[in-house]
Amino acid sequence: MSNQTAQIRSKKVPMGQKIAFGVGMFANQMFPAILGIFMVILVEDLKFTGLMWAMIYLFPRLFDAITDPIMGFISDNTKSKWGRRRQYVLIGGIIMGVAYIFMWQLFKENSLQYNFWYFFLWSVVFYLGLTFFSVPYVAMGYEMSDDFHERTSIMAIAQWIGQWAWVIAPWFWVFMYDPDWFPSAEVAVRELAVWVAIPCALCAIVPAVFIKSESTLDKDYEPLNFSNIGGSLKKILQSFVEAFKIKEFRKLCGATFFIYNAFMAVSSLTFFVIVYKLFNGNAGDSGIWVSLFGCLGALGTTFLVIPIITKMSKMFGKKKAFLIAQGISIFGYVLLYFLFVPGKPWLYIVALPFFSFGIGSLFTIMMSMTADIIDVDELNTGLRREGIFGAIYWWMVKVGFAIAGAFSGLIIWIVGFNSELPTTDQVGAVDGLHAFFCVLPVLGTLVAMYIMKDYDIDEEKANEIRAQLEARKAKLD
Questions:
Q1: Please, which contacts does 56-59 make with residues 24 or more away whose CB atoms are closer than 8 Å?
Q2: What is the rounded CA–CA span in Å between residue 76 and residue 186?
Q3: Cβ pair 272, 433 in contact under 8 A
Q4: CA–CA distance, 388 with 350 (Å, rounded to integer)
Q5: Do the Cβ atoms of 346 and 311 come closer than 8 Å?
Q6: How far apart are CA 205 and CA 132, in angstroms?
Q7: Nearest C-alpha neighbor of 53 from the set 396, 407, 400
Q8: Structural contact between residues 441 and 333, judged by C-beta atoms closer than 8 angstroms
Q9: What letter does residue 425 receive in the DSSP assignment?
Q10: d(CA 266, CA 334)
Q11: Residue in 260, 36, 12 with CA at minimum distance from that of residue 145
Q12: How many angstroms separate the CA atoms of 140 and 76, rounded?
């Protein structure tokens, strides 16, 4: 390691700032976690078709994916005494909370077409709020530290807090389908949406209130006005091109696309696989087993995966830690295929600690790596563009998520699954759902591991880049 590299100082971020950032991650994870659970009532109770399910997943998220890069550009170039990010995080949190409540005010008495379009339009508003919140929020995390390992620590704490959303969310299955709580799941989501939206909106605005940021009033940023919108869009496109010229960033986006979206394509099927594979289609008989699947998996991520992956990253480097974690997850998916045994739901618990390493380690490592790549971009262009890179990264996630959601509806159609029939009348369809549930994530993970095998930004290279940036800044000062 060169003397110049050794001179880089570790920028320790106060724990209070890390926690404030992590509270925002709880909202960022809780909204989609509950959304995935509530979505089941669209098919199970309101009788949306597989095509409607696919459209609801696909089009609002495509809209969201289009607005993300624009929001990234706006966030990176905002001149304000509050800095570049905080005001948008605040506005986005409020929009998400309001839209989430209205989105779920669905009634069986209304026609299927009315419920479809009502939900569809409110979901567009919700995802617009998510764009206002998530793009500048993620950028906040990228710019909190210049240190290679401190970046992993920030993301690990944020993911640790965010994972509690996935611990809590599965228990909504119990409330929704328990007649002692609600007369029907349709009634349940109308009321529970309020109890989800308000605390999550408050969590979303915590980073806006508590994370420090410097005034950007005197910065030489691009002007943000309607007359400049054409030029802005051109610069956004140029930023995309420049970002994807960085080989390592292409690898991060590609690997995340395959792992996350293969997982999300089948995660919406969890309820159907457990209820119909293990309990012959009787949701009442399934008791807490649907809830336990998500809850125990999230607890494994919270108390096992994140601490281990953080330590592995420091010991072996980020890339090797990523590859090891994904290899463990493949073993977990194989176990899930063999341990879904009718009448013996407890067997699947054996697979959960291994299965959790896949998605549980993904964003801790990938978000830390993205912060390293933003340094590469600054070295190449002289610009600091956390918002743009965050928007592009999550653009890949969201476009893929839209495709994955549509694909989950397609899977239901391909296997011929019918939620009104017991398993004994559609054994082949249920087995097909189970096969997709286990095999598709394995295929996505293998592709991602192949993509990442020659990723080459390690600690030494990252520190050398930081040293060059610090030397450049010293000359300018």
A1: 56/116, 56/119, 56/120, 56/123, 56/405, 57/401, 57/402, 57/404, 57/405, 57/406, 57/408, 57/409, 58/402, 58/403, 58/405, 58/406, 59/120, 59/124, 59/402
A2: 41
A3: yes
A4: 41
A5: no
A6: 12
A7: 407
A8: yes
A9: G
A10: 15
A11: 12
A12: 11
pLDDT tens across 340-354, in order?
A: 998 888 999 999 999
Q: What is the DSSP string of 67-79?
A: HHHHHHHHHHT--
Q: Tell which residue, 260, 447, 446, has the closest CA to residue 362.
A: 260
Condensed to tens digits (0 to 9), the pLDDT of residues 269-305 reads: 888 899 899 988 887 777 678 778 877 887 888 788 8
Map residue 185 onto helix, strand or coil: helix
First to last CA, the chain: 26
The per-residue pLDDT for range 372-428, each reduced to its tens digit, is 898 898 888 887 778 778 777 877 777 776 677 677 878 888 888 887 788 888 889
- Which of 65-69, 82-86, 459-463 shows the lowest mean pLDDT across its residues? 65-69
Whole-number Å distance between alpha carbons of 441 and 261: 8
Can you spell out the DSSP letters for 96-132?
HHHHHHHHT---TTS-HHHHHHHHHHHHHHHHHHHHH
Instruction: Kindly provide the b/e burial profile for residues 43-77, where b requires at least 16 CB atoms within 10 angstroms of the residue's own CB.
Output: bbbbebebebbbbbbbbbbbbbbebbbbbbbbbbb
| CB-based burial label for 32 (10 Å; 0-12, 13-18, 19+) | middle
Reading the block at residue 123, the tokens are 């979901």
- By residue count, the chain amounts to 477
What secondary structure does DSSP assign to 287-309, as a single string?
TTHHHHHHHHHHHHIIIIIHHHH
Structure tokens at 102: 């209205």
Amino acid in the structure at residue 272: F
CA–CA distance, 465 with 376 (Å, rounded to integer): 7
State pTM to two decimals: 0.73
